[in-house]
Design brief:
Low-confidence stretches: 76-121
Oligomer: single chain
Largest sheet: 4 strands, mixed
Radius of gyration: 37 Å
Helix content: 25-40%
CATH class of the largest domain: Mainly Beta
Distance between the termini: 95 Å
Strand order of the largest sheet: 10-11-15-14
Strand content: 15-25%
Order of helices and strands: HHHHHEHEEEEEEEEEEHEEEEHH
Shape: elongated
Mean pLDDT: 80
Number of strands: 15
CATH superfamily of the largest domain: Urease metallochaperone UreE, N-terminal domain
Length: 384
Amino acid sequence: MSKRDYYDVLGLKKGASADEIKKGYRKKAKELHPDRNADNPDAESQFKEANEAYDVLKDPEKKAAYDRFGHAAFEGGMGGGGGGPRPGAGGPQGDFASAFSDVFDDLFGDFMGGGGRGGRSRAARGADLRYNLRVTLEEAYNGLSKTITVPTSVACGACSGSGAEGGAEPTTCPTCSGMGKVRATQGFFTVERTCPTCSGLGQIIKNPCNECGGNGRVQRERALSVNIPAGVETGTRIRLAGEGEAGMRGGPPGDLYIFVEVTKHEIFDREGVNLHCRVPVSMTSAALGGDIEVPTIAGGRSRVAIPAGSQSGRQMRLRGKGMPALRGGGHGDMFIELAVETPVNLTSRQKELLREFEDLSEDNNPESKSFFKSVKGFWDAMKG
């Protein structure tokens, strides 16, 4: 009897993607597993056939060979040593090792879990949630209390989270006798897997709640008040224990993690607890010196004295005017960086005065004088 096409075995079209192959295999494995088909004598052979098909199609190299040559790719008739072993060859051990490895990894995902043999979780813990929160630099400086709205799963009010109509108690699963797992003997192996009837909970609900469909939880939007401490930075994570999704059938809730992002400020640049502020000053103020007023993140003002002859890039420190440390320890500093501004849109009189100033400025630009002296020495050396 000729082999069936592997894509047909898994109910797929030729050339299906890796995700489609995985989903098709899971569906077929659940449908054909011998434990769920005790009255079907062909279930075991069909289950092996599905595993054999998946063993080939999940492997990119095997899949490429099969797509090109079909079953002949694995029957040693291609020449050049290219075929490799036929899927399922090597006796029962090779067949079942591959098949049940896939069942472990791809179908049930929680084999041998639940704390060892016979272990189970009657009430599964809810999932953790993530919430991205954007705050301004001023809010990060002062700290704030903020109300956020989080879409999540909450305990069903109609059944008090039990999943049973009227809040009735679940009954022991008859398939696994409350153990949450069943054992199956396949060839040389005895495999323990999650009970397909109760999904490992060890209990079943005879009359599911109409409101939640037996899950014990429903989707809702929940408003939460969150305290954001002063000094938070982008990437700060705040954990709210028990504020995640409700657990299945009365299980403990997960946690809510708030990830903070501090938005960019138009005046201040942040570096840890320190702030940087670039302040433009006029050419005359930089040359003659004087006082300027600069803003602080707290909303106040500070006077800064500019020394005469200041150049662009000169920095001055205002101690304690930076951001607060997140876990105490005072405040950082604020650094003022001067940007000497060249005047534009000059009048005729201003140009005249600047030319006159230039004629009188032979000894007022020491850096330029030193630079061009070095340049002249460089040129002279090149000529020599």
